[in-house]
Amino acid sequence: MPLVRAVNVLKSFSGNQVLKGIDMDVHRGEVVCLLGPSGSGKTTFLRCINQLETIDGGRIWVDGDLMGYDDRGGTLYRLNNKRIAAQRRDIGMCFQRFNLFPHKTVLENVMEAPIQVKGENKAEVEKRALDLLAKVGLADKPSAYPGQLSGGQQQRVAIARALCMQPKLMLFDEPTSALDPELVGEVLTTMRELAETGMTMIVVTHEMAFARDVADRVVFMDGGVVVEQGHPKDVINNPQHPRTQTFLRRMAAEDHTKIPDPAPMVDGTATDIL
């Protein structure tokens, strides 16, 4: 059983269909990167997993639990807010913006949810929070306030905060897009180290090098559908679909990163040039 299973997920906003039947499995310990142009549905799909958006059709399971609904004889009934909040406790999410409490210290930000939401022992949570801050390279910042930190440091606090809830799954929505270029690397390093621990991660990103090096699988979305997916070196280095090829060429030009052109086609089959 995959940790995450999505079947025919549909979502519209004001009559505009953003997700047009997404099917996706994510297995335990897998790192999946969602690639695609703005407006392709990546962030919406991520938010549907965490029930920050209500799906219009289909179903999403996380660790066997049907997210947001009870299934009674094939008919879905929406869960109340308390039960949805309980489902979210096992899913960590990091956003483009860090959403830290500006009036609380770094340590207080990391400790807040386990104490207030789960009712955990304060001393135990503090020890775990300090360990996590050390793991993300911020052992010297527990007493600092968010406004005293760089953007990269704030995002690493946000990652530690999510991990302090001891989630089964981590969702990242373009976690480096709001950062100055020189700060991107420190956040990606933290995410690489997290992946190495075996954390299941779904990452919406435009960081091609990260996707190529860290992901077990990349999924290219466009127009609310999954266009192409597979091993990162296959999809990024040798995309088969014209939409994927166009997107990756544009990303390579913007990032000044050389991504090999797809192999030439012979009788409809890709061939490698040695």
**Rg from alpha-carbon coordinates:** 20 Å
Give the end-to-end Cα distance, rounded to a whole number of Å. Answer: 40 Å
Percent of residues in beta strands: 25-35%
Number of distinct beta strands: 14
Give the quaternary arrangement of the chains: single chain
The geometry reads as globular
Strand ordering within the main sheet: 8-9-10-3-11-12
- Unreliable spans: 257-274
Structural class: alpha/beta
Mean pLDDT: 91
Helix content: 25-40%
Provide a count of the helices.
9
- Compressed to H and E, one letter per element, the order equals EEEHEEEEHEHHHEHEHEEHHEE
Keywords: ATP-binding, Nucleotide-binding, Transport
Organism: Candidatus Phosphoribacter hodrii
Family: Belongs to the ABC transporter superfamily.
Enzyme class: translocase
Word description of this protein:
- Pfam families: ABC_tran.
- This is ABC-type polar-amino-acid transporter.
- Keywords: ATP-binding, Nucleotide-binding, Transport.
- The chain has 274 residues and is α/β, with parallel strands linked by helices.
- It contains nine helices and 14 strands.
- The strands form four sheets. It has a six-stranded mixed beta sheet with strand order 8-9-10-3-11-12, with helices on both faces. A four-stranded antiparallel beta sheet has the order 2-1-4-5, with helices on one face. A two-stranded antiparallel sheet has the order 6-7.
- Strand 1 and strand 2 form a beta hairpin.
- The longest helix has 16 residues.
